[in-house]
Amino acid sequence: MIWLAALGLAVAASAGLEVFWRSRGHRPTTNGTGTEVEPWVEARARATGDAFVLVGQSRAQAGFCGETFRQRCPDQEFVNLAVSGLPPLATLRDLAGDDDFHGTILCSVVPHVFEPSELDAQQEYVDAYHHRDALAGWLELDLAPWFRARMASLQPKLALPRVAIDLALRRPLPTPDYVTVNGDRSMVIDFSATDVERLRTWRIERTRRGLANRTIPSPARWAEDVRDIVPWIRAIEARGGRVIFVRFPTSGEHVAITEHYYPRADYWDRLADLTGVRTFHFADDPRTAHFVCPDTSHLDWSDAPRFTAALLDVLEPWLAGSSGDESAAPPRGR
Amino acid sequence: MLFNSSTFLVFFAVVLAVHYSPISWRLKKHSLLWASYLFYAAWNPPFVVLLWLSTLVDWTAAQRIAISEDRRRKRAWLVLSLVSNLGLLAFFKYGNFALENLQALLSACGVVYQPPALDILLPVGISFYTFQTLSYTLDVYFGRAKPWHSFLDFALYVTFFPQLVAGPIVRATCFLPQCVEPRRATRDQFGWGLMLLLLGLFQKVVVADALLAPIVDQVYGTGFGPSGTAAWQGTVAFAGQIFCDFAGYSSCAIGAAMCLGFSLPENFRFPYAAIGFSDFWRRWHISLSTWLRDYLYVPLGGNRRGAMRTHGNLMATMLIGGLWHGASWTFVVWGGLHGAFLVVERWLRRHLPERRFWSTALGRLALGAATFACVCLAWVFFRAESFDQAWEISTAMLGFGSEIGAGLTRAQAMTVHVVMGALLLSHAALRNDRLELAVARLPHWSKALFASCLLVLVIHSPGDQRAFLYFQF
User: Fold this and answer.
1) Bond before B22 cis per omega within 30 degrees
2) Which residue from A131, A274, B120, B248 could staple onto B200, CB 3.0 to 4.6 Å apart?
3) Residues B22, B25, B29, B32, Cα dihedral to 10°
């Protein structure tokens, strides 16, 4: 009886907390839990066969809507392996070396990710996947991410000890994050929940400073770097898979700054010829060119489904053909 | 597999279902044994072989010791057990440490030696199960126990999952007799077992991990350079963290075992209310301190061979106890400090005249506070990453540092004061009591409320899932 009463009270209290935090605008998220690697490892394990795999950084994680893809292609396994803040080529290399994978990789890139210093950025995630033990992996059926993806009150920032300290110090209760990550690892950015002007200024300054501090490789040097990854692409294609490089939307000053350091004609436009695969730049098609990133770098959650649908419309002829089918429109490299 | 993971929840539910199903006791023991191997394999499957090796060696050695008439043969079997168990421990735990020290020693002598990079992975819990199996062979050798008749029971004793990776270190004489008759928890025992599990999770997840660990990590992080106040706050927080982490594990272990109908020995008894260091070691990690007493201190001569020899034995025991915790000289210094505290306490007890003041509440409070302060000073060496850091923090604590060093935020300072204040008060209040009895005195409604509060706090304290600190030992 004591335990039944305790369980009942605990369930009631948890439900009350959930209702309370949701009423204050909080949504479930797996972000900021310090355990971002585990869901990635779990997702990576599903990237086999002819799966459709999204590889990239936060721009892809926020801009590509998994739900929209699943509605369009209900029979196709969709795997989101994008990692916020980390250039993606280590994951591409890993998939290239995986004989069980012969699917499609939608790889979100910008020119600097091909530089040698960026190649291992996601290697920590890849290593975690390969170092997981088969038996241990099978046993570690961690239910926590499943609950975190469904309960707003399980965010670390809403941890009761932390909230209690805040209350004791008469601090305001935590406000909702404008960025949340769903259970399928897709990112939801709600710019209406933050000060967009401030964020835009910070983002532009960060981009400007980041590029100013880089040693920009000459186009020739960069081309050499790109050629280094071509064997990975060929390996995937040899198994019947394919790679598509996509430039996800950016806006305003962000476009101007990146164009200044990495002129499109010298870098992006050469990518298709250098790699021999399809590339798509969001600005090249009216269906995707009109989207605006409020912070200049990421799409708002409300635009992500429409952008994804538009992108899939553009890619559909390519996706319908086999990897070696050159007849499908639109033309390569545009 | 961690007690604070949802995997364990599922695993334990399945184990309980099988244990309380209508199958034979022998089958139940088999299921517990294989569940224990699975529990261990969840961390690193190949190291299960070490468990098998340890089980086989000590089982065989004890049987041979018992049937041998010749004293030299008995001793040979004991040596085999000691060499194989301590050899494995030495290789896996101290291999790199020994090579590094050999390199430093040769370098001091002008010899350049580059040891091979061994890259040895420490099998979790090896220090615990090594001591546990050794105690069985030693007990049989010294005639304190007879060799057990059932290999299945013995294998379960070595492997029993609740205490396998971080204790308590259970004696064969305590566990094996429990394997004879079918074990089934009464309703009260089952309820108390669940309460201990929940209490252990609360200590680990809420107090150690969510509240104290971030503060300790900051003070003991590289380049923090704490002020004297922050050094004390960080170290006192560590005292709370390591207690709640380790006692939390022990509570979970004892609780899980109790739900299955097994009784494991108490491992902590409100240690921060200790008055003096001998009292502290009767309350802290009791299963280790009694192991060291029975199998090291007493065989060395204990206190039977004069004051000097007693002091030497105390120091040797504590130094080895320090080294048992980890392959680093900082752990040896931690053990040495506790050895020194015990020697000084013993000397003071013999040489200082008795005064009534020390028996009064104020006197006992002063002695308890002094004990806690010294224990905290020793914890610095236990937690510090290096001697440089230990020196920096301990000098800051002793007032030789700089008060312009880094401090904690108001929230962090308040957390340390509130949490540690509550912890110390609870230890003082329950010093001469037993937790089980204290909880039993509560009315039913408050027990339900208490359990639900613990449950809600455990569920709603998400964050980094940290392994138990004692796993590394």
Assistant:
1) no
2) B248
3) 20
A278-281 sheet: strands from edge to edge = A78-80, A52-55, A104-108, A242-247, A278-281
Contact between A169 and A156 under an 8 Å Cβ cutoff? The reply is no
Token pair for B304: 């039977």
Residue-range domain boundaries for chain B: 21-183, 188-472
**Band of the pLDDT at A324, cuts 50, 70, 90?**
very low
Q: Which domain holds residue A281?
A: 36-185+219-320
Report the residue of B456, B460, B461, B466 to disrupt the A interface, i.e. the one with the largest count of A CBs within 10 Å: B460
> How many domains are contained in chain A?
1
pLDDT value, residue B405? 65
Work out the angle at residue A98's Cα, subtended by the Cα atoms of residues A93 and A104, and round it to the nearest 5 degrees.
75
Q: For B220-285, where are the alpha helices, taking DSSP H only?
A: 228-259, 277-281
**pLDDT tens figures, B58-103:** 999 999 999 888 889 999 999 999 999 989 888 888 888 888 888 8
User: What is B285-307 written as a DSSP string?
Assistant: SHHHHHHHIIIIITTTTTTSS-H
Nearest by CB: B448 against A2, A140, A162:
A2
Nearest CB among A8, A135, A155 relative to B45 is that of: A135
Q: Which residues pair with A55 in a beta bridge?
A: A107
Task: Nearest chain A residue to B194 by CA: give it.
Answer: A3
Instruction: Establish if A15 belongs to a structural domain.
Output: no
What's the rounded Cα separation, in Å, for the pair B381 and B246? 17
Q: Which residue of A has its CA nearest to B193?
A: A3
Taking the C-alpha atoms of residue B468 and residue B203, their distance in angstroms, rounded to an integer, is 11
E strand segments, B74-166 = none
Determine whether the interchain pair B42/A2 forms a contact, defined as Cβ–Cβ distance below 8 Å.
no
Tens digit of each residue's pLDDT (9 = 90 or more) over B24-54: 999 999 999 999 998 888 877 888 898 999 9
Tokens of residue B433, six digits? 């009591």
Report the C-alpha gap between B472 and A140 in whole angstroms.
Answer: 20
On whether residue A74 sits in a domain, the answer given is: yes
Integer-rounded Cα Rg, in Å, for chain A is 21
Per DSSP, the residues of A95-124 read: HHT-TTB-SEEEEE--GGGGSGGGTTTTHH
* Helix-then-strand count for chain A, H and E: 15, 7
Q: State the DSSP code for B38.
A: H
Q: How far is CA B234 from the centre of its chain?
A: 21
The residues facing A245 across adjacent strands are A107, A279
| Residue A228: CATH number of its domain | 3.40.50.1110
Evaluate the omega torsion of the peptide bond into residue B168 and state whether it is cis, within 30 degrees of 0.
Answer: yes
CA distances to B215, B264, B377, B407 from B234, rounded to whole Å, are: 6, 33, 11, 10
ipTM above 0.85 for this complex: no
Residues of chain A found within 8 Å of residue B45, distances taken between Cβ atoms: 133, 135-136
Mutate to test the interface with A, among B40, B419, B456, B458 (most CBs of A within 10 A): B456
Q: Which of A58, A77, A303 is nearest to A185 (CA)?
A: A58
Residue in A33, A142, A153 closest to B460 by CB: A153
Residues of B in contact with A143 (CB under 8 A): 6-7, 9-10
Residue in B285, B325, B338, B427 annotated catalytic: B325
Tokens of A247: 């430039």
